[in-house]
Design brief:
By secondary structure, the protein is mainly alpha-helical. The chain folds into 3 domains: 93 residues, no CATH class; 94 residues, no CATH class; 162 residues, no CATH class. The protein contains 18 helices and 4 strands. The chain has a two-stranded antiparallel sheet with strand order 1-2. A hairpin with a 2-residue loop joins strand 1 and strand 2. Helix 13 packs across helix 14 and helix 14 packs antiparallel against helix 16. 25% of the residues are buried. Bound molecules: zinc ion (ZN). The site of zinc ion (ZN) has 7 residues, from loops.
């Protein structure tokens, strides 16, 4: 990798090669992390082809060649004609950013990025929203400035930067860094809270601990977007459930999976037939679990859990389970795990049939699901492992 780094550094001394506009000042043109390599150059043909030559030269010496299937070029602000020339010259495909659209290329998003950044119990994936997190940290600085009366630093700012006004109305000068930070956040936050007084009151009420310390994550919670609570989120986001199952089950519970019916409503005209039963329109309610195929799988899973003779749909199942979510018994985890695994299995089978033309029987899907669930439950409940194994094995057949 040292040799590759040297080659990549050398190409930037060539007259035809230009650094990426946001990397030129620090002369950065590549980053290597484990077996991942990211290269940054200006989006023009001479720069990118020089990089491709450097990679070829390294490949001929070391035998390490970039895998075209795993190599992508990400463009920002590059004309389509130039993109076409670059992808043609290098043989690498164009990578897609998440949540990216352009005039001639519109992506369909089932869920906004802001909502993905909300906590699990509000239907998100608990991702930190960077702008709000940064503002929350700035709030801590402002709070310290307003309330550290014995601090020399706070006194200096109040005397020379704020002067007679308030911190919110002070004129910003580059030297007065802390007051400058206020101007970065005051516009959006004051709009949200009405006035500086209300905002300061909200900070005092929610973000200060009993010992007078400012708590940044409470400020983040105050600033971020809030969504209605989902009572069933704890059913799905639980240690008993595999994260990939939780992810799909959350989208299914909110009707955010790209079912044929949802895509048709967004203007994509497809055949809206359910590929599993071939008897009805594909909607969320149908797939989970009114569909004859999916319903058959779910009934067999319920029978495995000893819950015979009930017909149900996803909404009713989530409600039923949310009323029992406090239970710590391994059987409560078993139910959660089975429900999410069944949603995941139905969605996977539907995708396999549409995109790979591959069909699997309910009996085989059931065996696979039972195996996955059994391994997960045994891993979670090691103390009760003998009892769990005996119980699951006795009803496995
Ligand atoms: Zn169906």
């Amino acid at each position: 990798m040292e040799i590759l780094s040297r080659y990549l550094r050398q190409i930037c001394s060539l007259p035809q090669v230009t650094y990426h506009p946001k990397c030129a000042r620090i002369k950065l043109n590549h980053l290597i992390f484990a077996d991942d390599l990211m290269i940054f150059v200006r989006g023009d043909v001479p720069s990118v082809t020089a990089v491709a030559h450097a990679l070829d030269k390294f490949g001929s010496i070391s035998g390490l060649v970039a895998n075209p299937d795993k190599t992508e070029i990400y463009f920002g602000g590059v004309h389509n004609d130039v993109k076409a020339l670059i992808t043609q010259a290098t043989g690498y495909s164009e990578g897609n950013y998440l949540w990216q659209s352009s005039v001639d290329h519109q992506k369909i998003y089932m869920k906004s990025w802001a909502m993905c950044c909300s906590p699990w119990d509000e239907g998100g994936f608990n991702i930190k929203e960077v702008l709000s997190w940064n503002n929350a940290n700035l709030c801590k600085g402002i709070w310290n400035l307003l309330h550290s009366s014995d601090s020399l630093w706070a006194q200096w700012h109040k005397t020379y930067a704020v002067k007679q006004g308030t911190i919110w109305t002070a004129t910003v000068k580059p030297a007065h860094s802390k007051v400058g930070e206020v101007s970065c956040i005051s516009g959006s936050l004051l709009e949200k809270f009405g006035t500086a007084v209300f905002f300061e009151r909200a900070l005092a009420k929610t973000c200060v601990s009993k010992n007078g310390k400012f708590v940044v994550h409470k400020a983040y919670d105050l600033i971020r977007n809030h969504y209605p609570k989902l009572r069933w989120a704890h059913v799905i986001w639980h240690p008993s459930v595999l994260p990939k199952h939780s992810f799909i089950a959350t989208l299914a519970g909110q009707h955010k999976l790209p079912t044929v019916n949802s895509l048709c409503r967004r203007g994509l005209y497809l055949t809206n037939w359910c590929v599993l039963c071939k008897h009805a329109m594909e909607t969320h309610s149908h797939l989970f679990f009114y569909c004859a195929f999916a319903g058959d799988l779910w009934r067999k899973v319920l029978a495995w859990m000893g819950l015979n003779g009930r017909t149900s749909n996803l909404r009713r199942e989530l409600h039923w389970c949310s009323l029992r979510q406090h239970r710590r018994h391994w059987k409560a985890g078993w139910y959660r795990c089975c429900l999410s695994a069944c949603i995941y299995t139905v969605w996977q089978e539907r995708n396999a049939r549409i995109f790979a033309g591959h069909e699997t029987d309910v009996a085989i899907l059931l065996k696979q699901l039972q195996f996955t669930v059994k391994v997960r439950i045994l891993n979670r409940h090691t103390k009760d492992s003998r009892m769990v194994t005996t119980h699951l094995s006795s009803i496995y057949a």
